[in-house]
Amino acid sequence: MGDNRAMTTTGSTRTVVHLLRHGEVHNPGGVLYGRLPGFRLSDLGRQMAERVAEHLTGRDIVHLVSSPLQRAQETAAPSAEALGLEPEVDERVIEAANHFEGMTFGQGEGKLSNPRHWPYLRNPLEPSWGEPYKEISVRMLAAVDTARRAARGHEALIVSHQLPIWTLRRTIEGKRLWHDPRNRECALASLTTLTYEGDDPVSLSYSEPAVDLVARARPGAGA
Predict the structure, then answer these.
(1) What is the pTM (predicted TM-score) of this model?
(2) Distance in angstroms (rounded) separating the CA atoms of residues 51 and 56
(3) Is 135 exposed, middle or buried (0-12, 13-18, 19+ CB in 10 A)?
(4) What pLDDT was estimated at residue 135?
């Protein structure tokens, strides 16, 4: 039968997958950085990553995956050390692609009122300015499935970004994928946790191990 701690009363294997959003990013210019290289964690962001590592110490996490972006890998590093794991990079959990990447909104060329941006605003339900929600959902489901299989009977940790994690959550909950970004429950350094019985998700929970630090974060330092 194997390890009884990994078995439910019905005999199916229980596996847990945690999705961790990275910590605060050093972004004094307020750039929509998206997938741009070179955006590291701020000092506060590193504190968030350390706090999460403390929170996860002692968990039965046997598999650790990170987005290839610097802010995600820096967030994963303290947990990797605490858990004694080598993070694997998975391109499927990267930030969503966005036409407005590299812009700062509110002035000049970055203003949404600029006519050159209008074609990208035609359909907020897709959304037309970036990677379609459906595509994000498909790649995130595949990445979680891979991590779940790798950690079968134990726990896995995936370090990703707000929109991919939120899109996955809405998929798991059977909700429409288009949404108001202001209503996302996915704060910096938060954990969205999926529990599986065999291959089926049976519960979803959310926690903020660094909630006191998040209250000190600068506007525009997320994503």
Answers:
(1) 0.90
(2) 9
(3) middle
(4) 97
